[in-house]
Design a protein that fits this description.
Layout: H1 4-64, E1 81-87, H2 97-114, E2 118-124, H3 126-134, E3 141-143, H4 152-167, E4 173-183, E5 186-195, H5 218-293
Parallel strand pairs: 1-2, 1-4, 2-3
Antiparallel strand pairs: 4-5
Helix pairs in contact: 1-5, 4-5
């Protein structure tokens, strides 16, 4: 039977852990509410800029008959070089949140390499960076601190190099991967072709449009809007990923708190059994001593 002091020490240690995990859950819950608001605001803007860019591209392509159209809008089914931009957290203690993204990146790498496509990795987040560095996988770009405190300017600065390489023809495709927020209890892995731009979900209302395109300014307008589109989608992905991270950490800490409680209950039962056994042993010794004196 375990020593009473050892069991008591274990109970105290687990209770301290329980307090820590409970506090971390509350902190993640508060942060989640804040980032959710930012995510909802960013989502509305992202949808609108996608629709506007879709309509302008549609009009310009009709004017030019798809001639001299920016490569950002020309679908490429046989890319030779692909940039994979992926987002992970800077911190752990959030269950399988980071590993889900890493597994998807690994799967995409194998898929592209099987087709003879050259892959370049651009990582935002310490956990993803540490994993691929440990695996001796070269990272073309890496940044720490962005995913834990994302801003529009920082996001735009991070994605700028990938955008310029695509624009200049150094790459043929840019894929964005991150674990996004679905609801309070689950996350959803997002794999998005950032460049070339796809407008499968955009709604174009030709009859009610107020847009008026000047042919002389079309390419300049498209370049500017494309950059805004890429920058803001990067920012939205960072915000959405941060919401998902807080959600995952909140769940992980809630599970840890429940497990700690179960462990305390189990140790308490063990402590009571040990104490009862000790009392019984003492009574037997006392009775044996009394009998020996008779």
């Amino acid at each position: 039977m375990a020593n009473l002091k050892d069991i008591s020490r274990q109970i105290k240690s687990v209770k301290n852990t329980q307090k820590t995990t409970k506090a971390m859950k509350l902190v993640s819950s508060a942060k989640l509410r804040k980032t959710q608001q930012l995510s909802e605001q960013a989502k509305s803007y992202a949808i609108k800029i996608n629709d506007v860019l879709s309509e302008i591209t549609n009009r310009i392509s009709k004017i030019q008959n798809n001639e001299n159209l920016s490569r950002a809008f020309i679908k490429n089914n046989s890319p030779k070089t692909v940039d994979i931009v992926f987002i992970t957290a800077d911190k752990g203690l959030c269950g399988g949140f980071n590993m889900a993204t890493i597994k998807e990146v690994r799967g995409l790498i194998l898929s592209y390499k099987a087709k003879g496509v050259q892959i370049r990795l651009r990582a935002a987040g310490r956990k993803g960076i540490d994993y691929f560095n440990f695996q001796d996988v070269e990272l073309t770009q890496q940044v720490v601190g962005l995913t834990s405190a994302p801003t529009y300017d920082k996001g735009a600065d991070f994605i700028k190099e990938a955008y310029e390489d695509f624009k200049n023809g150094a790459t043929d495709k840019v894929v964005l991967i991150y674990n996004g927020f679905l609801n309070m209890l689950s996350q959803e892995l997002k794999v998005k072709d950032l460049l070339p731009i796809s407008f499968d979900n955009a709604s174009i209302e030709q009859t009610s449009s107020m847009l008026d395109i000047e042919p002389d300014d079309d390419n300049e307008l498209l370049d500017e809007l494309t950059l805004k589109y890429v920058d803001f989608n990067m920012y939205y992905s960072l915000i959405n990923s941060l919401s998902a991270e807080h959600s995952a950490r909140m769940q992980a800490m809630d599970n840890a708190t429940k497990n700690a409680k179960e462990k305390v209950d189990s140790l308490t039962v063990e402590f009571n059994k040990a104490r009862q056994a000790a009392i019984t042993t003492e009574l037997i010794e006392i009775i044996s001593g009394v009998e020996a004196l008779k």
